[in-house]
Task: inverse folding
């Protein structure tokens, strides 16, 4: 299905959204959004007409409940920001692009809803105007991808995405798990890379059990360095080692190029960087066993 996601970017939203990373929405909308949906970002504004436009496209990834019980998080995959904002009103054909392709019972899209269906026709028209090639988007997201393939794609994209849109507010969410962390966890297992602690199984309504482990970015996101969102900058840690690495007095981190040497107050570990090259080798080793 194709949908519109309303996302304010002219003001900072009260939701824990990270445009092109995460969409935070109230429970009421849960039946309007599904994993695999292709979406277009819509910047709405009730009072200023010139602040209404479309600004990006992407695919909905995993949808997970927020701990508050009344909101959900939708992961954003393959987000592409339009080079220019697309006005919602088409001057040449004099009409709202979103009105197109609505036939039968419903003559109009439900404009007032933050998440709403958009016709294939309107979707394609917005992409055409934005000069985004539809083939750039893999609308075949339902096809199961291996975590390694997912990581390859994400790393390639994240390598030149500066994490500049992120702010302190979202730091918690990052450690709770992004697509990169999740894929990494699937490959490495939920095990602390410093002390070997095994993550416990999380309480979940889902059919597949998930284990708890935290992700730490060695080059901190806050430094906003290019590439710091990639898997080779991330290590999986237990809550204790993670707290110590952030707040401990006796921390030593040496970058050896292909590995990190990390010393905490009472332990030391040499950890291979989680590069695709390393993870691929690891996969090979696992198969051999
Ligand atoms: Zn640990
Ligand atoms: Zn951390």
Result:
């Amino acid at each position: 299905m194709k949908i519109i996601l309303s996302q304010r970017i002219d003001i900072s939203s009260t939701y824990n959204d990270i445009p092109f990373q995460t969409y935070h929405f109230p429970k009421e909308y849960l039946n309007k959004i599904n994993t695999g949906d292709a979406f277009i970002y819509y910047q709405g504004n009730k009072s200023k007409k010139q602040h209404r436009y479309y600004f990006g496209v992407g695919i909905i990834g995993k949808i997970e409940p927020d701990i508050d019980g009344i909101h959900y998080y939708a992961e954003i995959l393959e987000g592409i920001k339009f080079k220019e904002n697309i006005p919602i009103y088409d001057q040449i054909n004099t009409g709202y692009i979103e009105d197109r392709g609505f036939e039968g019972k419903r003559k109009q899209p439900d404009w007032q809803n933050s998440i709403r269906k958009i016709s294939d026709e309107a979707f394609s028209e917005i992409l055409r105007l934005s000069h985004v090639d539809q083939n750039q988007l893999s609308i075949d997201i339902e096809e199961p991808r291996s975590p390694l393939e997912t990581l390859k794609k994400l790393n390639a994209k994240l390598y030149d995405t500066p994490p500049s849109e992120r702010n302190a507010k979202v730091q918690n969410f990052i450690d709770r798990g992004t697509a990169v962390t999740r894929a990494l966890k699937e490959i490495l297992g939920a095990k602390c890379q410093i002390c070997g602690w095994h993550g416990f199984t999380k309480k979940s309504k889902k059919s597949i059990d998930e284990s708890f482990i935290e992700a730490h970015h060695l080059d901190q996101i806050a430094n906003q360095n290019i590439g710091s969102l990639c898997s080779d900058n991330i290590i999986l840690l237990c809550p204790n080692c993670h707290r110590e690495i952030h707040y401990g007095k006796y921390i030593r981190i040496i970058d050896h190029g292909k590995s990190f040497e990390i010393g905490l107050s009472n332990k030391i570990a040499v950890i291979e960087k989680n590069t695709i090259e390393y993870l691929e080798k690891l996969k090979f080793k696992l198969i051999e066993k």
Observations:
- The first helix runs from residue 120 to 130.
- The chain is about 20% helix and 25% strand.
- Residues 108 and 126 are 17 Å apart (CA to CA).
- The pocket of zinc ion (ligand 1) is lined by residues 192, 194-195, 197, 237-238, 240-241 (CB under 6 Å).
